[in-house]
Amino acid sequence: MKPQEILNAIEENPIITAVKDEAGLEACLRTDSRIVFILYGDICSICSIVRRVKHAGKIAIVHADLLVGLGSKEVAADFLKSQADIDGMISTKPALLKRAKELGLFTVLRCFILDSMALTNLIRQAEQVKPDMVEILPGIMPKITMQIVEQTAIPIICGGLISDKEDVIGALSAGAAAISSTNQKVWKL
Known about the structure:
This protein has helices at 3-12, 22-28, 46-55, 75-84, 94-102, 116-129, 142-151, 165-173, 184-187, and strands at residues 15-19, 35-38, 59-63, 88-91, 106-112, 133-137, 156-159, 178-181. By secondary structure, it is an alpha/beta fold. The chain has an eight-stranded parallel beta barrel with strand order 1-2-3-4-5-6-7-8, surrounded by eight helices. Strand 2 (35-38), helix 3 and strand 3 form a beta-alpha-beta unit. Helix 4 (75-84) packs across helix 5 (94-102). The two termini are 26 Å apart.
């Protein structure tokens, strides 16, 4: 699936289901959400997990850093594309995302905003990597979200600690293009 098609799907439904275990996967497969952030698995199970997501007609975006047994070298992107047939990749590692982009995958740069240095690094990395989207965590910082939106032309996803309608509205009102959550109550908003 082309990155623009994934961006269009996110625009249609800005609440992205994120799954961190089998129970979450089963629940998300029954939702209307088209995008699934896969935040668990290992090199033995990821192909099966992605197949199940795609069989349900959903878009599979895998967080490569969280897969047990998969290294952080660029070849990890090649493996995930050729063997697991992923649609996109999430990572905190710029080199891995650069390779994923070369392979035509949708890319999400995930950043933890802990302090002003992390914020500065995010802007620099986003300019270098040019991911399709940037995910910031925690996602419950509307003032910081607004600042990031103003400093980069890359669409922002807010994730982490989003737990209710107020958090979703706060993130989207601050300029985020989407939110991601493992909280099944948030999926239904």
